[in-house]
Structure formats: structure tokens, C-alpha cells
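Q: How do we represent a protein-ligand complex in a form that can be generated cell by cell?
A: Start from the inputs.
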Amino acid sequence: MKDDASQTLFARALQVTPGGVNSPVRAMRGVRDFPLFAERGEGAIVYDADQNAYIDLLNSWGPLILGHGHPAVVEAIREQAGRALTFGLASGLEVELAEFVTAAMPAVEEVRFVSSGTEATMSAIRLARAYTGRDVVVKFAGCYHGHVDALLARAGSGAALSALPVSPGVPRKAAADTVVLPYNDLGAVEDLMRRRGEEIACVIVEPIAANMGVVPPKPGFLEGLRRATQAAGALLIFDEVITGFRVALGGAQEVFGIRPDLTCLGKVLGGGLPVGAYGGRREIMERVAPQGDVYQAGTLSGSPLAMAAGLAQLGVLRRTEGAYGRLAAVAEALGAAMRSAAEEADVLATVQVSHGLLTCFFAAGPIENQEDAARTDARRYRAFWQAMAAQGVLFAPAANEAVFPSLALTDEHVGQIAAALPRAFAAARDALR
Ligand code: KE4
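Then emit the C-alpha cells for the protein with KE4 bound:
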């Protein structure tokens, strides 16, 4: 596979950008010696700077649920660009998208748009702290909620003690009010609530964890979080930046029938442009400035161009009969093909599929939390990833991430992916020899 153009671009990028990329995971360090630079996309296919074509299973880490360049989305952007890119004033498109979101997610009575998932979660925990008058935030190991100081924290010594920063620059005191518990461990949550419930402002959770690889909630886990937070007077925040509009039009809260107090959104919501959002019960959201006293602002929040892209993409999802059934079926088909190819190659792999998302862990299953997920063999994943890329299929360039199928994937694409799997699992098997 020719990659000179990517290599040349990377050498230039390293002169002017830390690590040569604008988001760490794009450096592809887990799977390659230097990153591929993308150049264009068409439907299910993404092309790199050397014109290598890949069936795209990354889809920009989730936003491109319709694939690249869907005509409805491109046309909406083109039309809006001809009218105005941004105003710095309110515009009707923000109202339209807010009406769409609140209609799709009944637990979201009011919503505020921002420009990234990180801004959404950062604002949601600030609001939860203001609304409850409490400081402590609870998150789960392996869940990622953006690069918010308070949420870039790992379990301190003893799961329910204060967390420790995971990055230099995050002050210890910023992480001191964060508690990190094991995902799917309802007992640990109930124990914490018994001992520190009146200090807890909120529990933030990925309702289907995807940032340690796909780890579904065990039966009763989310319901238990809802009960435990209610009883303690803490807020339940669903971080649906990945699952929102991906697992169902109403997100994971529709799938599981649970009403969180606050919801964070992003990715699919923006149709490929930068959009995040947080929303929830009116009595909570009314605390947000200018109606309330909790300050949050943004120059390009609700940008008309991004709103137009989001409305177009969500509009296609809403009117496409069976869209979510198709996404789930494609994920199940890919999962089944991976399981049988792994068995055929006699390599240890656990493939977890949940509502249109999937991950292949090179480890024994089931994978129920970060500790299990960390056992995945990164060397095997690297060999698997390279063999699939060499056959024209792009998986997420990191072992503990998800596959994000798009509606642009045809049965023929699925067939091509399945045909490439045996070589990739054999490469994974032989990676340790
Ligand atoms: P952004 O700030 O990257 O828009 O969103 C942060 C975020 C919040 N919540 C969840 C559940 C998320 O998955 C994310 C971002 N996801 C990562 C990959 N899984 C984005 C990729 C990247 O960091 O480049």
C-alpha cells in the first residue's frame, strides 16, 4: 500500500502541530508507525492522500452515520452557506434542531447547543453541581466524556476514594471531587451512595460504553443508577455523544426506557459539522444563563451551518424506514463474520455487539468493565488492523474503540469485509509468534 503522500504530510504536520495531528487517537500509534492522511470520502468509502480506498468503519468516530457526502446533508450545507455561515445572533435553525431533539428525547425538555461533546459534558456537570449545590461527580473507569479536567480522572487507590488526574495539567484538586467506579458494578454505586450520597452532584455514564470498546450495560445496571441517584438527590447524566441518534432516534434512553436528568449529545447530531448539546428537565435547564445563573457560552454554538447539517442528517434518519434495524443488522452480520473467522483462525477473540456498535477484543470474554477490556491484546489488534487496511477496510485505529457502521454500507460491502477477515485473524494469531 503506497503511503508516501501521508508520510510527506505527516513530516510537514510534525513541524507545526503537536504529534502532527489535531486529536491524539488520529496519530494511529497503536496500529501504524505514522498516520494515514484522509483526502476525500464518497458514501461508504474514504480515500487517503495516496488515493488508497477503504470501506469506512470509523466514519469519523461516529458522526457519519449516513456515510460520506450524503446528498441531503451536502445540499443543506451548500444552501445554508449561500445564505450565511454564522451570525452571532439567534437563528431559526437552532430552534428547529432543538425542537427535533426535544421531540425525539422526551427526557430532554430543553437543550443548549455547544460545539463539541467535551463542551456538552463539561457544561452538564457544572449545571449538575449548581443545581444540587454539591461537588462530587461519579464516573466509570473506561468511560470517556471528553477532555474535561474533572472527567480526565482514573480511580484513586480504593475504587470509591477520590480519583487521580490522568493528565499533567489537571490539578489534583480538579480530580479530587471525582469518584471513579467500575462500570456495571451497581453494588459499588449503592455502597458509595450509602456513605457519601449527600455529597454527590451527579453520576455520568455512557449508557452503552464504547470508549473501552463496546461494553453493554448489564441488565439492571442503568435502572439501578436511576434508582440510586434519585434516592440520593443526585442527577443522572447520560453521555449519549456516541449513542444519541445512533442506537435509536431517541438514543439509549429510548432503547432502555430510562429518563436521565441530563443528556449530553454530539457526533451524529451535527451531521459531520462541530455540534454538541446538553439538555434535560426544564427545572434544571432553567438554571443556565441567561435564564439562570449558571454561565456557559460559545461563539459558534448553534452555528446555522452546523444546524443545517444536523437537521438534514437527522431528517434522513427519521424518514428512512428501518434505518436502525439496518444498522443493527449490519453490526450483527459483521460480528457474526468476525466470530467465525476468529474461530477458523483459532485465535482468542470476543466480539461484543450492541445496538449497531461493535468491538472485537483479543481477549477472553465477557468484557464487562475496564479491567476486562484492558486485557485485549494490542499487538494482535495491530496486526488485525493492518491486514484489514491492506485489504481496503478501515477499522478504528485503536484497540479499545468501536466500529461505527453507516447506512452507506451495502450487503456487498459487508461481503467484502467478511472476505477480508480470515487473513486478518490469521495475522492476529501469528502476531505473537
Ligand atoms: P468531542 O469533544 O470529541 O466532540 O466529544 C467527547 C466525547 C464525549 N463523550 C463520549 C461518549 C465520546 O465518545 C466523546 C469523544 N469520542 C472520541 C472517540 N471515541 C472522539 C475521537 C477523538 O478523541 O478524536
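The mean pLDDT is 96. Residues 131 and 284 are 7 Å apart (CA to CA).
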